[in-house]
Design brief:
It contains eleven helices and 13 strands. The strands form three sheets. The chain has a seven-stranded mixed beta sheet, sandwiched between helices. A four-stranded antiparallel beta sheet has the order 10-11-13-12. Strands 8-9 form a two-stranded antiparallel sheet. α6 links the parallel β4 and β5. The protein binds pyridoxal-5'-phosphate.
């Protein structure tokens, strides 16, 4: 979050810029410098600012891609100037985006009998926003046709309490009640026993998550689809499912093709995924697809001219660089189905190794193992009596360069403090071994540090969070 600094004391840029006429001249930090500087110096100043940034390869906190091949980055650098929205100047670019949507439609089993439709976005947040708006407008149309009194109650969206913040934003922006199905220790994903109790005629849709950001767990979409099907048979107010597959959308189709979660399920009408998570592209790129264009109300489709013809657009953002779309297409061609599968299986193997080692330390209980996504989420064993907390362990790992967040689970599971390791393609087995060695050393240090009393530390620090 960026706050104004206007009233703060001016701190000029203080590092010396050797061998230039600017050596003695400080640059202001929070005002525009009056005169420009040479490119070499500008570049140096910016690079200096970034030297003590975290090391992306040791960042086990993010789902976002931190490595791409040099050929991909070169291609992306070359295409930075292409404006993705300018479909008349760049028709080939438009064709590439179109191919990507088709490739993804195929991966997610869009039916040939229906006309799927989709778009690239900046990420899953924009994609979820679009899917949410489509659900809201479709519901309005249905409600109007059925003569429902829309002034009586706000429309609502049903989702597990493990939702990502983009859904809170969507509901706030569009004045929709976010109906959380609480997670508890027995139900660490959408609770299938109670979910339908939250649905009424004002429900615009149910969101299933593949997987939950806090833990990596999947919602059971197959069961949800069956419950929704039963509801729709019995009720005159049908409800449909959107799948937030930000991370699973580019993982499951390759590694676990047997799990039905996508358009194979009748009531799943739209899906989003982040190209910059397991789609292996640098941020930011996302995708959203609807199984049939009838689920995307027409007033959400805007036409732009395209080589004298018309081309539909539905994304929220207008101008942006096409380089991420190019990066996605490069990856699709470069890796193919087998390549994605191999990369993800390798990452999964690394996750299984880390899980095994974590268990063998004897300190941790797994909240989510590597059975699906290569994301590990664990707590300190309840019965274990150590003078440190997971927060202390995060701090010690940080000293060794590793970013491994510790945070309380979602709202009503605040007392469940977890630590999470997200394995990505650039975490090789060698690095994983080093991570485990560093983890064991950290634990040893913490066990031997008599100065810290863990229980007091927790009381004093309280719990602190992690921005997902
Ligand atoms: C990461 C994530 C998002 C947000 O995705 P961005 O691509 O970062 O905008 C939404 N939902 C889930 C489940 C996520 O994991």
């Amino acid at each position: 979050m960026l706050y104004g600094k206007k009233n703060q004391e001016e701190n000029p840029y203080l590092d010396p810029i050797f061998g230039s006429s600017l050596e003695g001249d400080p640059l202001p930090k929070y005002r525009l410098n009056q005169k420009g500087v040479e490119p070499r110096i500008a570049s140096r100043v910016v690079q200096d600012q970034l030297v003590d940034e975290g090391n992306a390869r040791q960042n086990l906190a993010t789902f976002c891609q931190t490595y791409m091949e040099p050929e991909a980055t070169e291609l992306m650098a070359q295409t930075l100037s292409i404006n993705a929205i300018d479909k008349s100047e760049y028709p080939r670019m438009t064709e590439i985006e179109n191919r990507c949507v088709n490739i993804i439609g195929d991966l997610w089993h869009a039916s040939e009998k229906e006309e799927f439709i989709g778009t690239s976005t900046v990420g899953s947040s924009e994609a979820c926003m679009l899917a949410g708006i489509a659900m809201k407008f479709s519901w309005q149309q249905r409600a109007e046709a059925q003569g429902l009194d829309r002034t009586k109650q706000r429309p609502n969206l049903v989702i597990s309490s493990g939702y990502q913040v983009c859904w809170e934003k969507f509901c706030t922006y569009w004045d929709i009640e976010l109906r959380e199905v609480p997670m508890d220790k027995e139900h660490l994903s959408l609770n299938m026993d109670t979910v339908m109790d939250y649905v009424d005629e004002y429900t615009i849709g149910i969101v299933g998550i593949m997987g939950i950001t806090y833990s990596g767990r999947y919602d059971d979409l197959k069961t949800l689809d069956a419950l929704v099907e039963k509801h729709n048979q019995e009720s005159e107010f049908p409800v449909y499912i959107h799948v937030d597959a930000a991370s699973g959308g580019f993982y499951t189709p390759f590694v676990e093709p047997e799990i039905p979660w996508d358009f194979r399920l009748k009531n799943v009408i739209s899906i989003n995924a982040s190209g910059h998570k397991y789609g292996l592209v640098y941020p930011g790129i996302g995708w959203v697809l609807w199984r049939d264009k009838k689920y995307l109300p027409e007033k959400l489709i805007f036409n732009v001219s395209y080589l004298g013809g018309e081309l539909p657009t539905m994304a929220i953002n207008f101008s942006r660089s096409a380089s991420q779309i190019i990066g996605q297409y490069y990856n699709f061609i470069r890796f193919g189905f087998d390549g994605y599968k191999e990369i993800h299986l390798r990452t999964h193997k690394v996750a299984m190794y880390i899980e095994k080692e974590l268990k063998e330390t004897g300190y941790f209980t797994m909240v989510n193992g590597a059975e699906h996504l290569p994301v590990l989420c664990y707590t300190l064993k309840e019965e274990i009596d150590v003078p440190w907390t997971l927060y202390d362990l995060s701090d010690h790992l940080r000293m060794r360069g590793w970013q491994v967040p510790t945070y309380p689970m979602s709202k009503n599971l605040q007392d469940l403090i977890v630590q999470r390791v997200v394995c990505r393609a650039d975490l090789g087995m060698n690095e994983a071994i080093e991570f485990i060695n560093d983890l064991k050393d950290s634990i040893k240090e913490l066990n031997e540090a008599h100065l810290v009393d863990g229980s007091d530390v927790v009381k004093k620090k309280g719990t602190y969070g992690f921005t997902h």
